[in-house]
Design a protein that fits this description.
Order of helices and strands: EHEEHEEHEHEHEHEHEHEHEHEHHH
CATH architecture of the largest domain: 3-Layer(aba) Sandwich
CATH class of the largest domain: Alpha Beta
Strand content: 15-25%
Number of strands: 13
CATH topology of the largest domain: Rossmann fold
Structural class: alpha/beta
Number of domains: 2
Largest sheet: 7 strands, parallel
C-alpha cells in the first residue's frame, strides 16, 4: 500500500506540526512492511526536519500559501505519485477529491472553527477559519475516511457534520523522547507552568488571576504561548508571573521538566496536547473538568472548574503543599501516557488506510 501524506506543517512547532511529527514517527516505527509512506512538503522545509528518513520517503514541492498548496499542488502530486491513499492531517482536504477518484483520509482535530462564537486573534486566523468552514461542510464523500483525536471531537463531528470519525489519540513520544536534556534558564522559585495563548479558549487570563490570588508566596507562574509584549503580559506584569515569549521545543521541554506542575485549565480543545505532554515529562497536571481533557487524562490529573479562579487557585495550593499528591499524579500520568503510544497510533491509522481502500 502506497500512502501520500501532506507534510505542509511539518516544521511548525505546535498544533498541526506536532501532530504531523507524531504521526510520521508512529508510522515510521511501527508500519507493516507492505506500507510505503511518501510525504510531500514545501521545498523551504529542510531535510533536518525529516522524521525517520530511512523509513519514510520525502518529496519537495514548490512553496505556495496553504490553500493553494492544498487545493492545487496536493492533487497534482497525487496524480504524479499515484498513491493508493492520500492523508490530509489538517482538518481540510483538496475538494477535487470529492469527485471520488482518489481514496482519502482526513484528520479533523476539532470543529472550533465552525463555531461562529469562537473568537480568534487576527485577521489571518479569521481567514483561516473561514477557509476551514468552507471545506468542512464538503468533507463527506464515499471515497474518504475521517480520523479524529478524541471521542469528544467524534461526537461533535457526528452532530455537526453527520458522519462517524474514527478516534486515534496522538501520543507525545516523539516530542518527549527527542527533546534534549538541556536546561534553559529557570526561575529561582518553584513554578507552575501554563501553556496558553491569546485565544480565549486557552483561559490564560483566568489562570494568571487564580495564581495571583492563591496566596502562594515563594512560587512563580511561567506562561508560554504568548509574546512578552502581548496585552496579557502588559496587563499582568508581575515579578511572580514570567512570560517566556515564543520558545522552541527544547526550551518548552526544559520548562516542562523543571515545573512543579502544569496548569492547563482550557475551556475548549479537540485534544489538548499539553495534557499528554505533561504526563510524558513526568509532571503533575492540573486541568479542566471538561472533555476532552478529562477523557485524555483519565485519573491522572487534578481536575478544576476552568471558569472558577477560586477552584484553580485551590488546586495550585493543594499541589504545592502535598508531596504525596504530586507523586500520585506523576505515577498515574506515567500509566496513562503509556496507553497513548506510537504503536497504537500506527496500528489504528493503518486500519483507517485499509478501510479507506475497502470502501
Amino acid at each position: 500500500m502506497r500512502v501520500m501524506i501532506d507534510g505542509f506543517y511539518l516544521r511548525k512547532q505546535r498544533g498541526m506540526g506536532r501532530y504531523t511529527r507524531e504521526l510520521l514517527y508512529s508510522l515510521g516505527r511501527f508500519k507493516p512492511e507492505e506500507l510505503s509512506i511518501h510525504v510531500v512538503l514545501p521545498k523551504v522545509i529542510s531535510s533536518e526536519s525529516y522524521i525517520l528518513p530511512n523509513k519514510i520517503h520525502y518529496h519537495s514541492l514548490p512553496s505556495l500559501p496553504f490553500p493553494l498548496w492544498e487545493q492545487l499542488l496536493i492533487p497534482c502530486a497525487a496524480w504524479h505519485f499515484k498513491p493508493d491513499v492520500v492523508h490530509s492531517p489538517y482538518n481540510t482536504k483538496p475538494l477535487i477529491f470529492n469527485l471520488g477518484y482518489q481514496r482519502h483520509v482526513v484528520t479533523v482535530h476539532d470543529l472550533m472553527f465552525v463555531d461562529h462564537t469562537h473568537k480568534v486573534g487576527s485577521w489571518y486566523q479569521w481567514l483561516g477559519n473561514l477557509y476551514r468552514r468552507w471545506v468542512a461542510f464538503r468533507l463527506r464523500t464515499k471515497s474518504q475516511s475521517v480520523v479524529t483525536v478524541s471521542h469528544h471531537s467524534q461526537a461533535i463531528i457526528r452532530e455537526r457534520l453527520g458522519f462517524v470519525a474514527h478516534v486515534v489519540y496522538p501520543p507525545s513520544e516523539y516530542f518527549c523522547s527527542t527533546a534534549t536534556s538541556r536546561v534553559w534558564p529557570q526561575p529561582e522559585k518553584p513554578y507552575f507552568y501554563h501553556i496558553g495563548g491569546a485565544s480565549p479558549n486557552k483561559n490564560t487570563a483566568r489562570c494568571i488571576e487564580a495564581f495571583l490570588s492563591s496566596g502562594l508566596d515563594g512560587f512563580s507562574l511561567v506562561v508560554s504561548g504568548t509574546g512578552k509584549d502581548s496585552a496579557l503580559a502588559d496587563k499582568y506584569s508581575s515579578e511572580k508571573v514570567i512570560f517566556t515569549g515564543w520558545i522552541d521545543d527544547e526550551a518548552l521541554a526544559s520548562y516542562y521538566r523543571q515545573a512543579l506542575a502544569v496548569v492547563f485549565p482550557s475551556l475548549q480543545e479537540g485534544f489538548g496536547s499539553p495534557v499528554v505532554e505533561a504526563m510524558g515529562f513526568g509532571v503533575p497536571l492540573i486541568t479542566s473538568r471538561l472533555d476532552p481533557m478529562q477523557e485524555v487524562a483519565g485519573d491522572a490529573a487534578l481536575f478544576v472548574d476552568p471558569y472558577s479562579t477560586d477552584d484553580i487557585a485551590a488546586a495550585m495550593r493543594r499541589v504545592a503543599a502535598d508531596v504525596s499528591l504530586r507523586e500520585r499524579l506523576i505515577e498515574k500520568g506515567g500509566q496513562r501516557v503509556a496507553e497513548i503510544n506510537s504503536e497504537t497510533m500506527a496500528q489504528r491509522v493503518y486500519k483507517t488506510y485499509k478501510r479507506a481502500l475497502a470502501e
